[in-house]
Design a protein that fits this description.
The complex is a heterodimer of chains A (about 425) and B (about 280). By secondary structure, chain A is mainly α. Chain A has one domain: Up-down Bundle (Formate dehydrogenase/DMSO reductase fold), CATH 1.20.1630. Chain A is built from 16 helices and no strands. Chain A starts with 10 loop residues before the first helix and ends in a 10-residue tail after the last helix. Chain B has one domain: Alpha-Beta Plaits. In chain B, helix 1 crosses helix 3. Chain B contains seven helices and nine strands, in the order ααβαββαββαββαβαβ. Classes of the chains: A mainly alpha (about 425), B alpha+beta (about 280). The interface between A and B is large, with 49 and 48 residues. The structure holds iron/sulfur cluster (2 copies).
Chain lengths: ~425, ~280
């Protein structure tokens, strides 16, 4: 099992990495507390661009979550046995990203303490309200699924003795039945929840897409294709992150791991290609028609001052390079390269999310509106300021650290069947 | 039913509202002893009708031929609602068309359109933004979570998020001691962390100037300040409805010169009409 660690950085480097992450997290936490205490005056968003970096990162995380959850249903609903070892990892990823996104969007609210109003005073014509409802339902589904997916292994570890056994015992929530019937029942529930989860995950993320798509005031968003692009790129991003994390963390026999990673990478690439197709269709239609408002948003994306986010980050680094790597004869076989491709895919999606949220808002509702009121909140344009970066990067770093920690405390690697690696020694 | 003609303008406003008006003026000039001295009795004489009168559909007819682009409407809105820096209920938009020397200046004042099919109330997740019976789109500051979806959705850029800026940051300065009278002064003074800071705010057609029956005691600030009498304000539901400030028949104004609404193609059905130059 030592091979699975060959891609992890050496001790010193790893320590340095953790230190950087910890520093980023601390800076982020400080900025978070600052915003909570002092309000939104510290943000660079304006009256023309009310949603900035945090919202972009929110949909980024939500996409990662929905994507990895939907991939997990390949295992639990569609019975794709070969992927089974990454099931718990995919579910944890779904849960973690969901929480990170939630943190960011709550911070983005002017009155975070009133969050419950979305449910208590729900307005049924609001896509955002529906997203709120489904968001909660989705958390529940993912939590229960994660528990069920780990349950047999938790019970096993709880009885294995050792320092951690009490912790695992706690996590079993008192259940100890690992009979064949009980396991079968688990699988049944996993399948049922997975089936329920598919529409819920689609509703959550497609719902976020709908938040944008129903906004006729911002022509770039106002497209029926938008929620679909949201979902497809969510799948791609979830697959990319899962590929990366599998390469770095999965502890199963090397041959099996290679199979899993290659399968994931190919799936992701296929989805990326489909995403590209949707994007091309949208862009071609928009520019062919050339409706001024519509084309203007896309002009910002493709030729605006931050067009490198599209051409460089989203397209070259985040889409084409991963496709080339996965398709390459040598690179397509190498764990390292495939993991790298996954990482690139994730980074590219950040670019895609920024491009969704920000360029559509750049053009004010009347071209000369910024001159009508001389104040920074009415100024033209938007670029995240240091507070927003601090919080954004801080939340990413926090998420990473939390993942490292949680991974040590949860049996994520491969369930009872393949668990031969960590303590206890599998007897499945 | 009391029609707006019953209270001709300029009506003699209650002493308190006059004082509040002065306070507002002082705020746009240099806030000083005058402002502090006029603090005591701000707020309308009677509480506003919360939901307005269903018999009315308040609207504006803005005659651009009468507008001299003095922007007094913007200043008076600032002083009436005491909007902080970076928050604008009403802005004056100017555009230049053509190339020199053949240029023309297009200019218009832009309040909230109080759309019949408003995007803001449609998307608001909490129902904090809602339609009153008289067509005015209002915000319940206590419900609003500050998500800013309504800003993203409003095609007229008519909403602003209160980022908590003050004209003078130092606490206790006279600017910050003048309460706003919007929503019947229930949110008069802003304070850190409380509404309306962190909320989205918008033009309400000065609904705090309505009496308990939902009729206007005096016209909205921009209307009564407009020196060219370019902004007409009245009931659009009543075919005979007249401007509460200048007395013209609203429907007649609309019919005689032809009219248009901004971004008509979006289907928001604004209650604000413009008469062409
Ligand atoms: S102009 Fe904007 S804020 Fe006013 S009612 Fe219409 S959509 Fe709402
Ligand atoms: S900011 Fe307030 S009023 Fe606007 S959509 Fe959100 S909850 Fe509604």
């Amino acid at each position: 099992m030592s091979e699975s660690n060959t891609h992890a950085p050496a001790g010193g480097l790893r320590l340095l990495g953790y230190l950087v992450l910890a520093a980023l997290s601390l800076v982020g936490l400080k900025a978070i507390i600052g915003t909570l205490a002092d309000g939104h005056g510290a943000l660079a968003t304006t009256q023309h661009v009310p949603w900035g970096l945090w919202v972009a990162l929110y949909i980024f995380f939500l996409g990662l979550s929905a994507g990895s959850f939907l991939l997990s249903t390949l295992i639990y609903v569609f019975g794709m046995k070969s992927l089974k070892p990454v099931g718990p990892l995919a579910l944890l990823q779904a849960l973690g990203c969901l929480l990170l996104g939630g943190l960011l969007i709550i911070l983005d609210l002017g009155h975070p303490a009133r969050l419950a109003n979305v449910i208590l005073h729900m307005n049924p014509t609001s896509a955002m309200a529906w997203m709120g409802i489904f968001y909660n339902l989705y958390i529940l589904v993912v939590l229960v699924e994660l528990y069920l997916a780990m349950r047999p292994r938790l019970i096993e570890l709880a009885s294995a003795g050792g320092a951690m056994s009490r912790w695992y015992c706690l996590l079993t929530l008192g259940s100890s039945n690992t009979s064949a019937a009980a396991l079968a029942r688990d699988q049944g529930w996993l399948k049922a929840l997975g089936i329920l989860g598919i529409p819920v995950a689609i509703a959550v993320h497609g719902g976020v897409g709908a938040i944008f798509a129903v906004t006729k005031a911002r022509a770039l968003w106002y497209s029926g294709l938008f929620p679909i692009i949201f979902l497809i790129s969510a799948l791609a991003s979830g697959g990319a992150l899962l590929t990366f994390l599998s390469v770095v963390t999965l502890k199963v026999p090397e041959e099996q791991k290679r199979k899993i990673v290659r399968l994931l990478a190919r799936l992701t690439t296929g989805i990326l290609c489909f995403d590209l197709l949707l994007l091309a269709s949208e862009i071609l239609v928009v520019f062919y028609g050339g409706l001024p408002h519509h084309a203007d948003g896309w002009r910002q994306v493709l030729f605006g001052p931050y067009s490198w986010v599209f051409w460089g980050l989203q397209l070259a680094l985040g889409t084409l390079l991963p496709i080339l790597i996965v398709g390459g004869r040598r690179t397509g076989q190498s764990m390292k390269w495939l993991g790298f491709a996954g990482l690139l895919g994730v980074l590219g999606i950040i670019g895609a999310r920024l491009n969704i949220v920000i360029p559509a808002q750049i053009t004010p509702m009347f071209p000369t509106l910024p001159e009508a009121y001389h104040h920074m909140r009415y100024a033209y344009g938007y670029f995240p300021n240091s507070t927003e970066w601090q919080v954004g990067l801080g939340v990413c770093a926090l998420g990473w650290l939390a993942f490292v920690l949680v991974r040590k405390c949860l049996p994520l690697d491969g369930q009872e069947h393949s668990a031969t690696a960590s303590s206890g020694g599998g007897e499945a | 039913m009391a029609t707006p003609q019953d209270t001709p303008f300029p009506p003699s406003p209650p002493a308190e509202s006059r004082r509040e008006f002065l306070a507002g003026r002082a705020a746009t000039a240099v806030a000083g002893a005058l402002a502090v001295a006029s603090l005591g009795g701000c707020g309308p004489a009677s509480p506003p009708a919360q939901e307005g009168s269903a018999a009315r559909r308040w609207g504006m007819v803005i005659d651009l031929r009468r507008c001299v682009a003095c922007k007094a409407c913007v200043a008076s809105c600032k002083s009436e609602n005491k909007t902080p820096p970076g928050v604008a209920y009403n802005v004056f938009i100017e555009e230049e068309q053509g190339t020199f020397p053949y240029v023309r200046r297009v200019a218009f004042t832009r309040p909230c359109m109080q759309c019949a099919k408003s995007s803001c109330a449609q998307v608001c997740p909490t129902g904090a933004t809602y339609h009153r019976a008289d067509g005015i789109v209002a915000v319940d500051y206590e419900k609003c979570i500050g998500c800013r979806y309504c800003i993203a959705a409003c095609p007229y850029g008519a909403r602003s998020f209160d980022y908590g800026h003050d004209y003078i940051e130092k606490a206790g300065n006279p600017y910050n001691e003048i309460p706003s009278s919007e929503y019947g002064a229930s949110y008069g003074l802003r304070h850190k962390g409380g509404s309306p800071e962190g909320n989205v705010r918008k033009c309400t057609f000065c609904l705090h100037l309505q009496d308990e029956k939902g009729e206007y005691r005096e016209p909205p600030a921009c209307v009564r300040t407009c020196m060219g009498k370019a902004i007409h304000f009245g009931d659009l539901k009543d075919p005979e409805g007249v401007c509460v400030a200048h007395g013209e028949k609203m429907q007649a104004l609309l019919a005689h010169r032809g009219n248009y609404r901004l971004k008509e193609e979006l289907g928001n059905e604004p209650a604000v009409y413009y008469l062409p130059v």
